[in-house]
Specification:
The chain is mainly alpha-helical and 221 residues long. The chain is built from ten helices and no strands.
């Protein structure tokens, strides 16, 4: 997992600097090892550099306070929800019970992610570092596109910037480019599976590969 995260950030650094984004060795080290990278690995270096241009920036205490309060509120609401695990989902008695349990599972997971990211934002602001917006507004999204931007928009932008556009985008071999994007996405989602489920590799990989293939075919059509 660490290899995947650092590799993606390294690719972003190399491409963005070659495209003209200013960056020193110190910028590279900060971009690579800044602690929340495990949550924001797909961030573009150009965005990171634009938000954090001055090493001597003054801490914005009001922004820090708001981020900390958001994290605390989300955490309290998350704790108020009854826990739902995968076993209870699979053993739910009937479709309605399954739908209710799944909805609770999703809401609770969203609250946990929003609480974690808001807390990380507050911690980063203690060093006058601004992180990119992420996992914000998941439960308040008004359309599927808004939801996706909040949930996984950063990953989408990364593969578009560093896979889809360099291969030609809509200008040449568009179908190939779409399949390449989902091949990279599938690889990113499956690289930790051999370590987590070493004895069940084919069965564990099949759903993710099928998901990527279906998406690639639908978008191509």
């Amino acid at each position: 997992g660490l290899f995947v995260y650092m590799l993606l950030r390294h690719v972003s650094w190399v491409v963005d600097v070659r495209r003209g984004t200013p960056g020193t060795l110190l910028d590279y080290c900060c971009f690579q090892v800044f602690y929340p990278c495990c949550y924001g690995a797909t961030e573009r270096f150009a965005d990171f550099r634009a938000r954090n241009p001055d090493p001597g920036a003054i801490i914005d205490e009001s922004e820090l306070f708001r981020a900390a309060v958001r994290g605390a509120v989300y955490s309290l609401v998350w704790l108020a929800f009854p826990p739902v695990d995968l076993a209870s989902l699979l053993t739910a008695p009937g479709r309605l019970a399954f739908a209710v349990a799944y909805l609770l599972f999703f809401v609770r997971a969203s609250l946990f992610l929003m609480a974690t990211w808001s807390t990380l934002q507050a911690m980063a602001l203690c060093w006058a570092m601004r992180m990119h917006p992420n996992l914000a507004g998941i439960l308040a999204a008004r359309s599927p596109s808004h939801f996706w931007c909040a949930w996984r928009g950063r990953m989408t932008r990364w593969v578009v910037e560093y896979v889809y556009i360099p291969l030609g985008g809509i200008r040449a071999h568009q179908v190939r480019n779409v399949f390449a994007v989902f091949a990279v996405s599938a690889a990113w989602h499956t690289l930790t599976i051999p370590f987590l489920l070493p004895g069940r590799l084919p069965a564990a990989l099949a759903p993710i590969v099928a998901w990527a293939l279906v998406n690639a075919i639908v978008l191509s059509v």
